[in-house]
Each structure stands twice: as structure tokens, then as C-alpha cells.
Amino acid sequence: MNWLMLTLVGEDQPGIVARVTDALYRGGCTLGETSMIRLGGNFTIMMMVDGAQSEQALESLIAPVAEQLELKFHLDPMRGGLHQHRVPNYQVRVNGADRAGIVAKVTAALAESGFNILELASDVVGDSATPVYIMTIQGYAETEIERLESALKPLAAEEIDVHVSAVETLIG
Amino acid sequence: MALLEILKLPDPRLKEVAEEVSCFDDEFKNFIADLEETRQAGPAAVGIAAPQVGRLQRIVILDCSSTRKPVPNHGHLILVNPEIVEWDGFELGREGCLSVPDYTGNVIRAERIKVRFQDPQGEEHECEMVDFEARALQHEVDHLDGILFIDRLVSRRTDLFQRKVYQKSGKKRK
User: Fold this and answer.
1) Is residue B128 exposed (0-12), middle (13-18) or buried (19+ Cβ within 10 Å)?
2) Which among A125, A134, A172 has CB closest to B47?
3) CA A91, CA A156: separation in Å to the nearest integer?
């Protein structure tokens, strides 16, 4: 296994995923873990690709389709591979009036507590007169929930509503 | 006693609907002992359902008494022909499955349920479950109906928006 990390970004339109993955499939590549999501009218793709003869071979496979769809792309060799999932044991939910610095302050407090972010999704909702920032974080930390809570406590004074809960993953 | 083989995705038997138990004989009781041994042998599973070992009968073992943080629970339960008769509330939670190795994901489940079941002697019981234990039972009863948690996954974005609506309507109810 020789994974490459392929990133593509461009204005959203129907068919991006179908055409990009079709080009990869026809070129003999397989996909590993991927993340694809629409952000602000753009479509963003990050995916692990295997099976390409070389970086150049994958590049020439993707270049025509990227050009047609007006996507920018980027290719990196990567370490690691499949089956390296970490199961989160904490979830953090954040919301507050949108303003600069919310993500930086929340994640700084978490990082100081040894919290490893595994997934983060954030959005600006509400309307443009009163935008609201919403963020969910799933991650792993060895530390007790009380320590995370006290690390995040100063944010309440800044009217950022932060809620930490333990995630007990059910295996059944 | 014997360890049973756990069926894994994409085994088609995991998608079949299991049949009611009508015969509570020794063979059935021996199977339950094997099923329990199998549950304990694997990675910390709080429950197991008979179809997971290829026996298409409505039998579930549940034990939420040893979670990392204690949760409300009824201890070790063997539920034969379980039927969820009431549901209330909903909550998002993370699940994994002995039959779907190396994957966990978020699923919406009822917060509170009432379940009717028979014990291994065939006696009828009814009990109420909440939170984690209620989630675990819903996960296991799904196995009896050929449904896996991956059939109920929700996206993170679904969570972001539904969560807010849920909190608001929760306040109204009180």
C-alpha cells in the first residue's frame, strides 16, 4: 500500500464526485478514507488514493477532469494507512454570537489539556445581522472531564457557550 | 460451553429477520451459555444478539453494569422475544458493533424505552430503560430485525442542526 493524499477544491456543481472517482477507478486506483463536504458554495475533497504507478501518473489522471470541472488539486505522499481509527471519548459543543477567535480560544484550552481533536465541524448560522457560530468537536483525551471543564470555564465569561460531554461508545 | 463464531459484515445472515423463540429446552439454555461466553470473549461488548452468531432467533444478552462511567442499568439481562413497546425522546450517541469491526459512528436512538420480554424460563417481564442501556437494547433489537447501526448513521451536519431544534422543543415540553 502506497497511499497518496489527494485534495480537490472548486465551485460546487453536481457530478464532481462521480467524475473524479470515475477517473481514478478507470486509472486503476482505489480509495481509502475520504472526507468530502460543501463549504461556502465550494466543494472540498480530501481522499486517500492507492494504486497509482507514481505521483506523476495520478497527476495526469486527475489533471484533465480537474480542468473540466475547474477544480484546484494537490497531491502529497502520506505516511500511515487504513485501520488507524481512534475512538473519541469526548464531545465538545460550542455556540455563541459569531466573532473572531472562538475556535482559537476553545481549541487552545483543549490543547493545553492534552485533548487530541479527531473531528471538528463548524458553521456560521442564523442570519447576517446576528450570525451565530456553532462548532462540534470529537476527540480523545486521557484527562478527567472536570479538568476539561475547568480549562474551558473562562470562555463562559466571554459569552461562548461550551459544553463537554463524555462519549461512551457502545459496542453491541 | 463453546465460543461461537461472530458473523461480520457483509454476511447476509446479519440482514435477516429472526424468529420468535417458542421452545425453552436444554439446547436453548446451552446456546445462551455459549452466547454469553462469546460476548465476554470479545472486545468489551455490552450486548450481543443471537443472529450475530448465525442463530436467527429473538434472543439478546445485555449487561451495562460495567461501563467506564456507571450508567443506570438493570445488570445482566437475558431477553427472549424482546419487544420495545414505548419510546420517548431522542439522543445522538456513538456506536460500534462486534459484527462491524474497526468502525464507530453516530446514531440517533430513543432516550427512554419500555421493553417486554421473556426470561430463559419463559416468564414474562417488563422494564423501563434509559440512556445508554436503552440505546444498547435498541441496538440489539435491531439485530433481531436484520438492521445494523450502520443502517442508521447520521451525518455530523444533521447533528449540528437537529441538536438545536431538539433543545428548543425539549424546553417547551417542560
Assistant:
1) middle
2) A172
3) 17
A51 contacts A10 by C-beta, under 8 angstroms: no
Task: Show the cell assigned to B93.
Answer: 450517541
pLDDT band at B42 (very low <50, low <70, confident <90, very high): confident
Q: pLDDT > 70: what percent of chain A? A: 100
CA A81 – CA A50 distance, rounded (Å): 10
- What are the distances in angstroms from CA A74 to CA A31, A45, A65, B33? 16, 10, 13, 55
Which residue of A118, A164, A171 to mutate against B (max B Cβ within 10 Å)?
Answer: A171
Q: Beta strand A170-171 with B91-97: parallel, antiparallel or unpaired?
A: parallel
Q: Is the pTM of this model over 0.90?
A: no
- Give tens-digit pLDDT for B84-117: 999 999 998 999 999 999 999 999 999 999 999 9
Nearest CA in chain A to B102: A83
Give the pLDDT score at B155: 76
pLDDT band, very low/low/confident/very high, at B158 (cuts 50, 70, 90): low
- Rounded to the nearest 10 degrees, the angle between the axes of helix A145-152 and helix A102-112 is 140
CB B83 within 8 A of CB B118: no
Sheet containing B100-109: which strands, arranged edge to edge? A170-171, B91-97, B100-109
> Greatest CA separation found in chain A?
55
Q: Assess contact for A148 and A113: CB atoms under 8 A.
A: yes
- The C-alpha of A146 sits at a distance from chain B's nearest C-alpha, in angstroms, of 13
What does B16-68 look like in DSSP terms, one character per residue? Answer: SPPBPP----HHHHHHHHHHHHHHHHSSS-SEEEGGGGT--B-EEEEE-TT-S
What is the distance between the alpha carbons of residues A135 and A124, in angstroms, rounded to a whole number?
9
Sign of CA dihedral B149, B113, A88, A104: positive
Judged against a pLDDT cut of 60, whether residue A103 lies above it is answered with yes
Omega of the bond prior to A14 within 30 degrees of 0, cis?
no
